[in-house]
Amino acid sequence: MAQALTFDDLQRRVEQVFARAGLAPHQGASLARVIAAGERDGCKSHGIYRIEGVLRTLKAGKVSGTALPRLLPTDGAIVRVDAAGGFSNAAFDLGLPHLADRARDLGLAALVINDCTHFAALWPEVEALTGQGLAGLVMCPSYATVAPAGGNRPLLGTNPLAFGWPRPGRDPYVFDFATSVAARGEIELHRRAGKSLPEGWAIDADGQPTTDPDAALGGAMLPFGGHKGSAISTMIELLAGVMIGDLTSPEVLDFLGTTTLAPFHGELILALSPEKFAAGRSGDPFARAEQLFEAIQGQGARLPSQRRYAARAKAMAQGVALTPAETAQLDRFLALGLDAVA
């Protein structure tokens, strides 16, 4: 029978797992919050499934669980945080208030996080920005697991891209997607469940189309939308890798030597003030945005993240449901710490 935990209880349990594994409180709390949020929102590929990868990366010495992120001196529109080899989440938490202040002052500001391990979805960062009344655009590379359009070998990362628009008094408008057809975690979940992949998700090591998750993990995923997704993915390599002086996806794979560990790279977060951009023009930007959203929904279309918000509301009212296997896995991680992973 499934066990239901409150969001706070689940977050505490995940924090305990990370403390047992040797993470400092500021690192473990930031990680636990986004993992618990993924589980709460029904995003299983970014929920407690991710704990094992975090522990494995720690055990391999490819990330520091005690790193203290450092705000670097900058002026103008760029805020820069050195994650010091730790997870990106704690670095983002440090940089967020400074980013928000500069965006409100200048209209547009950027947070650059360097030398971090990033494993999570990007919507937690986007929602943090919309919670400040700001629009946001977030992106990062990954490691080379995606073939460019027309290619036959891994070169690009899954390279997620997320956007958020604040909606006062309502859940924000948010989208967050990999630039591959599916996130790598989705393919791994198919493998664990013994399910075939949909057509068009991946190619095998010989560059041939495959629906076998094992063959896909040994080959390459495909970009969404063919050449369009490939171009957006390349843009992310340039902006969130090359431009910020951090690793591109091929360089990440060279550094790690495997795709079984969480990727080490940088992250780019852009924050925009709708009020600043709309200043001097007629109309309230938030009211005008609502007209657009109402027109979309008026045609019977669904806004992105609506399924996630519905899952969140249900979980907050009824608890976050974990299967017996998931509960046992949490117990095992807590009992064994880093010894729970190879």
TrEMBL record:
Protein's UniProt name: (2R)-3-sulfolactate dehydrogenase (NADP(+))
UniProt similarity note: Belongs to the LDH2/MDH2 oxidoreductase family.
Species of origin: Paracoccus haematequi
Lineage, top ranks: Bacteria, Pseudomonadati, Pseudomonadota, Alphaproteobacteria, Rhodobacterales
Domain of life: Bacteria
EC number(s) per entry: 1.1.1.338
InterPro entries: Mal/L-sulf/L-lact_DH-like_ah, Mal/L-sulf/L-lact_DH-like_NADP, Mal/L-sulfo/L-lacto_DH-like_sf, Malate/L-lactate_DH-like
Keywords: Oxidoreductase
Gene3D superfamilies with a match to the protein in the record: 1.10.1530.10, Hypothetical oxidoreductase yiak, domain 2
Gene Ontology MF term list: oxidoreductase activity
